Amino acid sequence: MEEKLSLQEWIDLAETKKISFGDFCIDFQAKELEIDKKVLLERMEDMLHVMEQSVAIGLTGIASMGGLVGGNGKKVEVYRSESTDKSVVGSVMSKAIMIALAVGEANASMGRIVAAPTAGASGTLPAVLFSLAEARGFSMGELGKALIVAGAIGMVISSRASLSGAAGGCQAECGSAAAMAAGAAVELYGGSPEQVGQAVAITLKNMLGLVCDPVAGLVEVPCVKRNAGAAAQAMVAAEMALAGICSVIPVDEVIDAMAAVGNAMSCTLKETAQGGLAVSPTGILLANKLFAKVES
Questions:
Q1: Which structural domain range is residue 264 located in?
Q2: Record's superkingdom (predicted)?
Q3: C-alpha span between 51 and 174 (Å, rounded)
């Protein structure tokens, strides 16, 4: 059995070295991959460009393969342009919602995305990164460093729990994506390594137990909208962490708890479309219609 990674250990090392968690992660990853730091950051920027393309695809109003989602990212874009004084959540969060939906819809239409950490949760991280970049003018280089932080968080979660909805429910997909985005946001705003860990812990605690119940087994309903919800959770957790609020339960223990919850979760709630919204009357009706089309 592979030894579990520890986010807290990495955080402590960064604090001891008196460097940001982003700098620690860049050093660590460059050594692990045996590549120059500049090359590593260039790879991250390449991924960011793919994310931008995914947003653009989604904002065309493209329909999903199953026809259950499509055009909602575009709706938010139009709403933002016409109702600047009516937003419930403000410009930054509204932008994040738009991006999360757009990327989720791009994925559901078989468009190119960056699995961050999975295709079904691919809208959360770009939603947080790009909405904050617009608000604060972060450069692609700064976003690239934040992306490396997000990746490091995902590595630990994968090591101690899972990133798969089939293994751990949607807490493992959208929950992990939100935790990665929260840590990345704290890094962008100059938070300490310890605050990065607090943001991760708070996010996962708030999303603990989220089930994976895709209607008709497609990554469309409720998956796309959950990306927007996950982006919101990430921002809430980052704000709390930057304010100095701490999780009572340490970050590694929170991740371990997520693993335990995932293991205890019924298989009907782990991507099998046999529970939750997938077996609601409307969910079953939609699935039957889709399967009838396939058979005909």
A1: 7-295
A2: Bacteria
A3: 17
